[in-house]
């Protein structure tokens, strides 16, 4: 059986899948690797451990008699650079994007390049410190110029992992175009600061995400993708009508590939950004820390009502509870002059749990508050675009209260809970489809459940 191996490298879980030609997963392994620390003692990915695990899994796959390995690709978390020398050896740890960024250095950078607002708008990158991966390169250059002089290439993580197999060095638009401070969205090219700081030559040329490099025995190796961009590929392939994808996990990210209106600075204040998908088209996206909020508040509820932590899984949408709560809360969301205030402050946080009769009613209130935030966040990317469908995947797609309230909030849209196995890994396999898979792509890769409003 012909298969493609996809390494899906998350910050916590590292997974590898074999997909057959019908894009079904036929084999998988996962691991949670221990972190190490960088020279400042800050936790970071142990790149040697990750390399060893990938090499070990590849040799294991090649021993499997029932599969013929035709292709390999990588989908990994973003905002992470590896710096390699002439021989391809890594020169530094894989610095953690959560590492605090020196304020003085940040000020020096933005003062030099027309200030935070102008720069952020040009690069569609909210000011996020180390999460703007280009700022990591700037930091290395400023803090350690001798080491920086030895750097041949700065590679985002997916391209570094790909280079381990191919010995070739490329950049990829999905990694570059995601809040990195590297790309000028207006001019669709690198921002000029890279030239001015003598960094441009250390970034390899961009390689199309659909192209592959052949290695021993004609295995097609992809150049790798940023996982958020990869996860939208199955939807782009299966649906031609304009849609928004609401991907829910720790973050709820509303992604609209059919909205190319320029980002405003106000939108950026509400956690809106643009990134580039694998066909180089901008995707407007808005982030909300909704999954994290759900986790924090359900712990409080469980402790207050003395019930098990996951009791919410048993609770189904109850129309009567919702209409009673709405009657009590009528002025709750409309009284504020700044309707976006609730994106920054959790409405539920201010509630007194003793005001509620039982766990079920309180949980409905929590979901009402989260969905009120979600509606505002998702509307930031729907505004002025021809979207008619909303697909929700991830944790909240299985939550009947969330899904029913969302469908009610968007009566002019079709709202679906979408499920598929491993969206970002599947996207990375589909991106290189033409180079390994002779079969046409089926149109049933995604299971949909429609929610009536």
From TrEMBL:
Family to which this protein belongs: Belongs to the FGGY kinase family.
Organism classification: Bacteria, Pseudomonadati, Bacteroidota, Flavobacteriia, Flavobacteriales
Keyword Plastid: no
Listed GO CC annotations: cytosol
Domain Carbohydrate kinase FGGY C-terminal: 241-300, 383-431
Organism: Flavobacterium rhamnosiphilum
GO biological process per UniProt: glycerol metabolic process
SUPFAM superfamilies reported in the protein's UniProt record: Actin-like ATPase domain (SSF53067)
Protein name: Carbohydrate kinase
Pfam families reported for this sequence: FGGY_C (PF02782), FGGY_C_2 (PF21546), FGGY_N (PF00370)
Top-level taxon: Bacteria
A molecular function (GO) term: glycerol kinase activity
Carbohydrate kinase FGGY N-terminal domain residues: 5-213
Alphabetical UniProt keywords: ATP-binding, Kinase, Nucleotide-binding, Transferase
Coiled-coil positions: none
Tagged with keyword Amino-acid biosynthesis: no
């Amino acid at each position: 059986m012909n298969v493609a191996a996809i390494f899906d490298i998350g910050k916590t879980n590292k997974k590898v899948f074999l997909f057959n030609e019908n894009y079904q997963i036929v084999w998988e392994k996962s691991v949670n690797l221990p972190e190490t620390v960088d020279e400042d003692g800050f936790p970071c990915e142990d790149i040697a451990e990750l390399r060893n695990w990938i090499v070990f899994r590849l040799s294991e796959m090649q021993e499997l008699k029932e599969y013929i390995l035709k292709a390999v690709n990588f989908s990994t978390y973003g905002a992470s650079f590896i710096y390699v020398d002439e021989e391809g050896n890594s020169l530094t740890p894989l610095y953690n994007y959560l590492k605090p960024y020196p304020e003085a250095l940040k000020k020096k950078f933005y003062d030099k390049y027309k200030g935070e607002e102008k720069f952020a708008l040009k690069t569609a990158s909210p000011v996020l410190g180390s999460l703007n991966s280009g700022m990591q390169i700037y930091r290395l250059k400023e803090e350690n110029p001798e080491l920086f002089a030895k750097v041949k290439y700065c590679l985002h993580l997916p391209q570094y992992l790909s280079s381990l197999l191919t010995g070739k060095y490329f950049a990829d638009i999905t990694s570059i175009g995601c809040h990195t401070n590297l790309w000028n969205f207006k001019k669709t090219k690198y921002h000029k600061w890279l030239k001015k700081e003598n960094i441009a030559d250390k970034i390899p040329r961009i390689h199309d995400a659909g192209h592959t490099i052949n290695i021993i025995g004609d295995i097609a190796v992809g150049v790798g993708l940023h996982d958020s961009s990869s996860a939208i590929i199955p939807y782009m392939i299966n649906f031609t009508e304009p849609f928004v994808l609401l991907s829910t996990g720790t973050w709820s990210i509303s992604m609209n590939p059919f909205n190319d209106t320029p980002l405003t600075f106000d939108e950026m204040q509400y956690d809106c950004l643009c990134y580039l998908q694998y066909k180089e088209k901008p995707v407007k996206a808005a982030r909300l820390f909704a999954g994290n909020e759900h986790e924090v508040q359900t712990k409080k509820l469980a402790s207050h009502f003395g019930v098990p932590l996951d009791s919410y899984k048993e609770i189904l949408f109850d129309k009567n509870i919702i209409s009673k709560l709405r009657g009590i809360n009528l002025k709750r969301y409309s009284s504020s002059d700044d309707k976006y205030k609730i994106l920054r402050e959790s409405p539920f946080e201010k509630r007194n749990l003793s005001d509620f009769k039982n766990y079920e009613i309180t949980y409905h209130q929590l979901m009402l508050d989260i969905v009120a935030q979600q509606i505002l966040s998702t509307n930031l990317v729907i505004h002025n675009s021809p979207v008619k469908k909303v697909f929700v995947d991830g944790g909240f797609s299985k939550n009947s209260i969330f899904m029913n309230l969302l469908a009610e909030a968007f009566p002019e849209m079709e709202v679906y809970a979408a499920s598929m196995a491993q969206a970002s890994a599947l996207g990375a396999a589909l991106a290189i489809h033409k180079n390994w898979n002779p079969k046409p792509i089926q149109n049933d890769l995604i299971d949909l459940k429609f929610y009536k409003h």
